Each structure stands twice: as C-alpha cells, then as structure tokens.
C-alpha cells in the first residue's frame, strides 16, 4: 500500500487544518449574525407587546371584546375570507407571470410559496423584504433553474403593486382627504408621497422596458445599498439577465403582464372590502366613498411603519387608533379591527409555515437538511 511521504503528509494535514479553521470561522460569523438578528427580533417583539398592552388598556378590554362580539361569526368569517381572497388574487397574478417563463406551477403550490414568503415577512422586521429570498428560492427550486426569470417576476410584481397602490392613493386620497379634518400640510404630504412613488415607479418601468443604461446604473446603486443577503448578491451578479427578463415581460409578454397587473389591482382593491365588512357588522353602517378612500389612504401611510415589529404588533393598533380618531370613532374599534386583520393574516401565515416546514426551507431561503449537514460536518471536526 502506497503511503504519503512526510512532507506530503504535513502539507495535506496543513490544508485540512486550514479548511477546518475556515469552516469554523464561517460558522462563527454566521452564529454572530444569527444572534444579532435574534436580539433585534426580541427587542422589536417586546416593544410591540408593550405598545399593544398600552393600546388595549386605553381602549378597555371589555369594549374591544364587545366590538368583536358585535361582528358575530358571520362578520368575522366574511372579514377573513375577504383578506384571503385578496391575497389569492395576488397569488394568481404572480403565477401568471411565472407561467410566461415556462414555470407552470399549480395555484396550490404558488399559494404555498407566497404564503411562506408572507409568513417570513410578517414575522420578521425586514421592511417587507424578508420573505423575498424564500419565494425566489422556492420558485427556482433552490436557485437551480430560471433564477433570473423568477427574480424578474418578483421585481415586476413589486413594481406593479407600487404603481397600483400609488394610483389608488393618489386618486382616492385626493377625494377623501379634501373632506376630512386632516391638516393641509399632512394632506399635501400624503398626496406628494403617492405622486413621488408613482413617478419613480413609472420612470423605472419605462427605463427597464427600454433597457436604458441609466436604469441599470440606478438599480446597481440601489442593490449596492441593500443588506448584502445572498439573494441580493445573486441579483447583483445577474442584473443583466434580470433586466432581460423584465424587458421580455414588458414587451414580449405584454398582455400576460397586463393580465397580472389587473389581478394585482384586484388584490389591492380587496383591501377596501375588509373595512366595509367591519364597519357594516361592527357599527351597522356602510362607509360612504369619501370615508372609505380616506381609510384606505391612511392605512397605506400606516403600512410604511408596521414592519418595525413582528406582525405590526402594537404599531398597527396605535396607527389605526389615530385613523379612527380622525374619523370620529372610539379607539376600541381600531384595536378590534387590527386584531381581525391579525387573525386573517395568521391564517395565511399558518399555511406558509406549513409549506416551509414541508419543503424543508428555513427563514433565509435555504434547505434545512443542507444546513444540518454543514453543522454536523463542523461538529465532527
């Protein structure tokens, strides 16, 4: 049997030790990042729970329960169903985009992927971006096929949602804000925010559809300032391919993209249905159009801050208390409405968590089995 000479054996042993040291260092860095994220999550959770406790105390628990009881089983069911239907419109819109790139997923699987991403985004303070790596990972089978096309569909979906929400906010907000008691400065701020978002998203849409060089430079600069998650680095490396995918969707698959945009618009529009249901069952009144669009406009502004805590806990209740106060309603209804939203959201979160567990995907868009093998390998060394 051939044996290694002493110098070769020493060299092999040195390489093995370097590899082990590198793996240990990488594992240590990952552990430190995880610990930091866990600490931040704990702080935001405790902060949200404290805010929620204050809001419940101010609104009085019995008054909140009475408002929820006024909804009844029919009102609660209708509220939850309206939220799930709105989410389903978004699912079908994204599935339509995926299908144009040859990714023919069933509605059930697409719902699971989006619910999984929604669960991660909902439960982690990440400025609504935490679930996107999970969605991209699931749709591309672990970043093994059509990764750039999948990222392109997610980008288009986010862009269309921004345009739709800004359009609703600009058109409806002007009507509702004029008849409200909100100060003129705040009204101008809301309209200005919506107008800016609409202009920026429109410019981005035109630039990407024409493959303009300034658009490439702009998105490169944006990606450079985002947290350097793995999926962000992948997008930086494949920006040209992603741009090609976006360009194809906006030009070669124009009708399919318009179809998806219509579904996304319906998804946003369903956000108007849930307050209609709540006010009808809880207060026995139908909101007029101006108050309905005012409620929608203020809810959109509120959503800018709800990512601070997991599930918007505490922040959402406080924000809706301000919205209800503007509409001349007691804050017990605000807390009850927010809790109903959380109930509906947790139904989607439950489906998403089940999907992630079934497919072995963790919160960072990785296979749990792969991570376990790495941990075991490092533990053996």
What does this structure look like?
- The protein is mostly helical and 381 residues long.
- It has one domain (41-380).
- It has 14 helices and no strands.
- Helix 4 packs across helix 5 (147-178), helix 5 crosses helix 11 and helix 11 runs antiparallel to helix 12 (315-326).
- The longest helix is centred in the N-terminal third of the chain and has 54 residues, at 6-59.
Quick structural overview:
This protein is an all-alpha fold and 381 residues long.
Task: List descriptors.
381 residues, mainly alpha, 14 helices, 81% helix, globular, disordered C terminus
List the helices and strands and how they pair.
Layout (H helix, E strand, L loop, with lengths): L5 H54 L1 H40 L6 H17 L8 H8 L7 H32 L5 H26 L3 H13 L4 H8 L1 H13 L2 H30 L5 H15 L11 H12 L4 H29 L8 H13 L1
Helix pairs in contact: 1-12, 1-13, 2-3, 2-5, 2-10, 2-13, 3-4, 3-13, 4-5, 5-6, 5-9, 5-10, 5-11, 10-11, 11-12, 12-13
